[in-house]
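Comment thread on ticket #2218

A.B. wrote:
> Attaching the input chain for the structure job we discussed in standup.
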Amino acid sequence: MTAVFRSNLPSVLITGANRGLGLGLAKEYSQKGYNVFATSRKTGPADIKDLAPYAVAIHPLDLLDPTLATLATLPATLSRYTPSLQVLINNAGTMIPDKVGALSADSLLAQFKVNAMGPALVTQTLTPHLTTAGQAGGAKVVNISAILASLTDNLMPGKLPGYRASKTAQNALTVALAKELAGKGILVFGLHPGFVATRMSGMKGELSVEQSAGLVAKVVDAANKEVAGKMVNQAGKVMNW
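C.D. wrote:
> Ran it. Output below, let me know if you need it in another format.
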């Protein structure tokens, strides 16, 4: 059973919300009094059983599909409930272990499609809904990034080059989106959620999903134009590119 839509509440859409940080954010925003809309690459009963109680609607979204057919129908799913979207969290991501000297075109392309192209295309597709909210008081787009994307800090040099390059590209698109959408009342920024214990990290991390989700929500609430086009961490501090 999914959550009930309430027209008096703000709405958030979270991509990649069936597990990990995305699921944690769905729970967090549901508890904060938001209508939660979610996407998941797989939407079978077993895939969304943990997410369903918190989401008004769960839309299948496959960013690796060359046709992007599921992306094209995303606005219609949202429009069945509301013409506006106050918060978009582009959380869906993928990490494929690789190293210089053993890179493959397929793994690089997959990571760029999901991690870089995905947030930009989802944001572009939902811009009408975000603009409606932006003109009525403001909207926010949060691209979940990573400290590994920082060219300046360059943590773990030589490791995960495909992942870090795709996240660096995401950051560049965050800057472009922020400049383009500011006039519509839409604030766009990147956010490193900390080192979170999820399946992607091998369940290793300094923060639990619940801790990170709570911190992320606080940063999003407090975000203003000072962070537009920048990347901040889970404490709200601006990070180096």
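A.B. wrote:
> Thanks. Noting for the ticket: The chain has a mean pLDDT of 96.
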